Amino acid sequence: MQITRRSALAGTALAFGAGIGGLPYRSAKAQAANTIRIGVLTDMSGMYRDNTGPTSVACARQAVAEFGQRGFNVEVIEADHQNRPDVGVNLARQWYDQGVDVIIDVPTSSVGLAVNQIAREKNKAYINVGSATADLTGAQCSPNTVHWAYDTWMLAKSNGGATVRAGGDTWFFITADYAFGHALERDTANFVRASGGRVIGQVRTPFPGTTDFSSFLVQAQASRAKVIGLANAGADTQNCVKQAAEFGITRRGIKLASLLLFINDVHGLGLQTAQGLTCTETFYWDLNDRTRAFTQRVLPRTPNNYPNMIHAGCYSGTLHFLKAIADMGVAAAKASGVDIINRMKAMPTEDDAFGAGQVRPDGRRLIPSYLFEVKSPAESRGPWDYLKLVQTTPAAEAFRPLGEGGCALVRS
Amino acid sequence: MDEIFGIPAPLLFGQLLLGLINGAFYAMLSLGLAVIFGLLNIINFTHGAQFMMGAFVAWMLLNWLGLGYWWALLLAPLIVGLSGVIIERTMISRLYKLDHLYGLLLTFGIGLIIEGVFRNYFGSSGLPYRPPAELQGGWDLGFMFMPVYRFWVVVFSLVVCLATWLMIEKTRLGAYLRAATENAALVQAFGVNVPRLITLTYGFGVALAALAGVLAAPIYSVNPQMGTNLIIIVFAVVVIGGMGSILGSVLTGFGLGVVEGLTRVFWPEASATVIFVIMAIVLVTRPAGLFGRA
Predict the structure, then answer these.
(1) HSE-up of B99 (CA within 13 Å, CB side)?
(2) A163: helix, strand or coil
């Protein structure tokens, strides 16, 4: 008998249909009740794609694979919020209504804060990794939310504090005009003032949609500030750094403080342009044996993009979440998002990417932060060998003290 | 004359100059759009992706073949222009008899696909590309620091815009082109191969976008979404200048660059919106655009 392509296709379709139809309804339902669903809501197509995006998904899947089978099934799904709060809110509602138990990642602070409200309204769990705003554990903290890898306060303290100590006591901010930029500028400015420095001025740049920053850089230079604080991220930061070099701003002794810079941005800029910049991270792949081991395990899933602290956070957050589920049981977890989060807060965190840590009552996870300097091309020994450690801030001092955030969960 | 409207005069001059530089990009991109719209009646929404392709081809030439900036300036427009010719021949040419909207949707779709493919292979965080050694450094003008490369961008794009305008207004080829825009059937009756003229025009418009992409590579982050950010503004420029008006699009491009630059000083938050406010005003008062014929 000759098998044509058409008949083969029809046969496959038939067999597939029979397979689905043949599943007893009861068993499918039982399966759903015993399946934990993790939704990675992230930027799959915009300027934060490499800083979050597919590598965040890969790291969540890596955690699921390492966690193994412990009496329940785990399913990871992903979606693109396009850095738009309205899209993010719709997806989050839809997912939670369709039985997704936890949403993880959610970069872009405006989206991160919007999803924070939905998780609380639906009483589901929410692990924010990608957003920077410290308001997630401050004024807008929620019993349904943990904030996993970093925040604006911690960036401000590490990078801002070190810059002022090094003599950069007058600042001009170039700030992305949305929740994240405002939070980062506010937190850094507080540190600058507390350390005896002055903020001379700031300019708010439209986000997204600004590609040319030369005009803002020239304004910053004209202010005669010693430091230009870049309260932006991704392509915005890259464009600022590139154009500051072009306009000879750094050569005139003005320091560029890239307050949030990921290793992926350094990769995009190239060491020739990025060398000498400082950045603050809670994870770097080449930090110690455990981070190197984690990176080697996850790289096959994301060969062209090394994990940064957000990616590692998606791994670590997923792992800790699954440990909490195993501890409390699937039925209890499905009943209440707050209970999951409380269980996560009660257990110490432990993984290869960050070592030991803990989650505070306001939802802030405490881990050490590291100040790095970008290597020169001569110092770099191999692919993605970009950063050298300058200073470590222990976990207890790295983040905003519990009482100072204004979180309602702490006062009660 | 220390201060003008509360802004130090040197700073204001600097901003005017920077606005002019950004205007150079707007002018080159809107020029390509205007040329394409003038003859093809197609609103080329792939333009942003083709601008991005220009920058990426420059990067590929450097990293894969070792060919530097000057080669890229020549080769990238040719390569991307050729891809435009293929797109026109295989897809866009089927739509000339239909409403504008179909061409718009098709080119918009092609743009998204191209962007998606590049994003898939190169990620979104960008690729490094440095200005050529000859164009590094800059001059101190007293009121600001002028990088050599930016100066080069303005001069080069002015020359390109002027050459294009001369070609269309003063040469025989340009005369054919303008005649075909007015009445294609008649021009064809005179023995001019109009379909080929249309194909080459599209290729030329695309090459202009790619050329702007190469110019942009050393100063902007080379990433797949670099065109999307720019193209919406450029469309507004074309609308303000008048669809299909060559000189209009060039003048409007430079003019709006300056307006945007000044907004960045007086009200930075509004700098992304100001062009669209102007567009709305122009559409209400002069629907055909500042330089268009009603």
Answers:
(1) 3
(2) helix
Nearest partner of B55 among B223, B204, B207, B206, judged by Cα? B223
Q: What is the pTM of this model?
A: 0.83
User: Tokens 């060039």 sit at which residue?
Assistant: B250
Full set of structural domains in chain A with CATH:
33-150+287-363 (3.40.50.2300), 153-281+369-394 (3.40.50.2300)
Angle between the N-to-C axes of helices B226-241 and B100-122, in degrees from 0 to 180, rounded to the nearest 10: 160
pLDDT at residue A3, as a whole number: 46
Residues B3-40 as b/e (b if ≥16 CB within 10 A, e otherwise) read eeeeeeebbbebbebbbbbbbbbbbbbbbbbbbbbbbb
Is this complex's ipTM strictly greater than 0.90? Answer: no
pLDDT confidence band for B293 (50 / 70 / 90): low
Phi, psi of A319 (to 5 degrees): -60, -45
Q: How far does A298 lie from chain B, in Å, by closest CA? A: 17
CA B59 from centroid of its chain's CA atoms:
19
For B55-96, the pLDDT digits (tens) are 999 999 999 999 989 999 999 999 999 999 999 999 988 888
| Chain segment B121-162, per-residue pLDDT in tens | 888 878 888 888 888 888 887 777 888 898 899 999 999 999
The CATH number that domain B16-285 falls under is: 1.10.3470
**Which DSSP string corresponds to A6-42?**
HHHHHHHHHHHHHHHHHS-HHHHHHHHHTEEEEEEEE
DSSP per position, B36-50: HHHHH----TTHHHH
B12-35 tens-digit pLDDT: 887 888 888 889 999 999 999 888
> Å from B40 to nearest chain A CA?
29
In this complex, the residue of B119, B125, B144 whose CB is nearest that of residue A51 is: B125
Residue boundaries of the structural domains of chain B: 16-285
Test mutation, B127, B221, B262, B265, chain A, max A CBs within 10 A: B221
Q: Considering just the CA atoms, what is the radius of gyration of chain B in Å?
A: 19
In angstroms, what separates the C-alpha of A108 from chain B's closest C-alpha?
15
Query: What mean pLDDT is predicted for residues B208-227?
Result: 91
Q: Which residues from B are below 8 Å from A when comparing CB atoms?
A: 8, 10-11, 14-15, 18-19, 21-22, 116, 119, 123-128, 130-131, 137-138, 144-145, 147, 149-150, 218-221, 223, 225-226, 229-230, 232, 261, 264-265, 268-273
The pLDDT value given to residue A146: 96
Residue A223 burial (C-beta neighbours within 10 Å; 0-12, 13-18, 19+): middle
